[in-house]
Amino acid sequence: MRSMTAYANVYKKQKQQTIQVTLRSTNFKYLEIAMHDFPSHNVLLEEKIKDDIKKTITRGKIEVYIYLKGHMESEVFIDELNLAKYISEAKKLTKKYNLEQKLKISDFLNLPQVVSWSEKRMEENLILAAAKEAIKKLLEFKEDQGKVIRQDMLKNLKYIKEHIATIKESNAKVVSLENGKEDINEEVALASFYVADLEKKINSKKLLSKGRSIDFLTQEILRELNTSSSKTKDKAIAPLIVESKNYLDRIREQAQNVE
Known about the structure:
Ribosomal Protein S5, domain 2; 6 helices
């Protein structure tokens, strides 16, 4: 079982450059990935990170923050083809108009399309490695929180099972006294069936897509409890149904935070 709320932070350093990757996961019905502060020049790398997230996470809003720090070296490129054209034309003009002027390289460096500058990009493998490590840490966080949620769910489910067992016994006495009136055997039996199924789902070793299934089963149990509540007037049964619904609401609320 995994929680949908989680957090992870990773630092990586290479020479004078530092990368920080922060992942934050919050509740959401579906999977939504939002990238923040990502270098705009590399859309393909962004998609690779998103694909890595999609391979392991199925639900929740995942926010990815990537910060690049440190000195970024620049590369200088001189277009010798354009420079040669400028020099050739300058020599022709010097000869044509009989100009006595020595040509210097500095005369040409500021001319259009001669010199260009480009900032060196941080090594993509470093960014990808940091992102992978952050995803791994996020999953560990989600699973640790999932264990806490699972234990709490089972505790609430234990009380529901005990109450339903008591309701079943009390209802048998009511049916025998009232000649079949206020019979909620069918509802109680269905509630017991769904509770057993819910317990299996909570204890299942499968990590993914449990939240929706748990939420569905709690709705089915709630429906049977509501029907039982409307059919019986027994003072011993009614409070147990109310308490069972309260414990069930806690499980439903917890299920909203389960991936």
